[in-house]
């Protein structure tokens, strides 16, 4: 039978993000400095280290030394993340506006698909924004109705680890720590590359609502 340390190591080495929402037991295990040290000792043997984001709320494994093989993996991962950023940021902005919230979506917040659907259907500008977002390659929706667009987006976000669905019988989803990690990535890219991703997404959404 695998130990909790072994299970956590498997999650990290498989590229998973560990937060309280995705795996409460694994997250609790890593909250202990003694356990983190044990995990880090094992990861070091494989050229990995334990990294964190969102002020320690999200853990993941990263490379210690980067040679050609590691650089190829990181380049591929960065390209994938980069291609997802604009549609994800536009989606997060839409959710924030539709929820009439002053705060962005963060770990632990519940999203009720039916409530969001009602708000979007009652607001033409939101419906236009959703249609645009759903057609990005990340989601690839060809549907014309809000219900199908939302269900596909939520399904894809669960697959990517940004949302979880605690009860399979209910259309209620919970944001994971990977969303907080995404905000850290956006901040880092904006600061180092001067891309202003959030501002670009806001501009894109404003243009859509004015069409």
Structural class: mainly alpha
- The residue ranges in which pLDDT falls below 50 over 5 or more consecutive positions are 207-211
Q: Number of helical runs? A: 9
Strand order of the largest sheet: 3-5-4
User: What's the assembly state of these chains?
Assistant: single chain
Topology diagram in text:
Layout: H1 4-13, H2 24-30, H3 33-44, E1 48-53, E2 58-63, H4 68-98, E3 110-112, H5 113-122, H6 124-134, H7 146-159, E4 163-164, E5 172-175, H8 177-193, H9 197-210
Antiparallel strand pairs: 1-2, 3-5, 4-5
Helix pairs in contact: 1-3, 4-6, 4-9, 5-6, 5-7, 6-7, 6-9
Task: Describe what you observe in this structure.
With 211 residues, the chain is mainly alpha-helical. It contains 9 helices and 5 strands. The strands form 2 sheets. It has a 3-stranded antiparallel beta sheet. Strands 1-2 form a two-stranded antiparallel ribbon. Helix 5 crosses helix 6 (124-134). The protein is globular, with a radius of gyration of 19 Å.
């Amino acid at each position: 039978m695998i130990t909790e340390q072994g299970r956590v190591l498997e999650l990290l080495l498989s590229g998973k993000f560990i937060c309280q929402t995705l795996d409460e037991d694994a997250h609790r295990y890593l909250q202990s400095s003694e356990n983190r040290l044990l995990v880090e000792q094992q990861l070091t043997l494989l050229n990995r280290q334990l990294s964190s984001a969102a002020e320690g709320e999200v853990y993941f494994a990263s490379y210690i030394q980067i040679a050609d093989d590691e650089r190829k993996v990181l380049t591929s991962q960065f390209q994938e993340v980069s291609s997802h950023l604009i549609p994800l940021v536009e989606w997060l902005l839409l959710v924030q506006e539709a929820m009439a919230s002053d705060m962005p979506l963060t770990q632990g917040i519940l999203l009720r698909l039916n409530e969001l659907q009602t708000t979007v259907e009652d607001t033409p500008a939101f419906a236009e924004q959703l249609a645009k977002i759903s057609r990005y390659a990340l989601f690839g929706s060809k549907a014309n109705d809000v219900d199908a667009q939302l269900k596909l987006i939520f399904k894809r976000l669960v697959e990517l680890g940004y949302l979880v669905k605690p009860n399979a019988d209910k259309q209620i989803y919970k944001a994971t720590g990977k969303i907080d990690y995404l905000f850290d990535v956006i901040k880092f890219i904006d600061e180092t590359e001067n891309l202003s991703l959030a501002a670009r997404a806001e501009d894109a959404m404003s243009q859509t609502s004015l069409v």
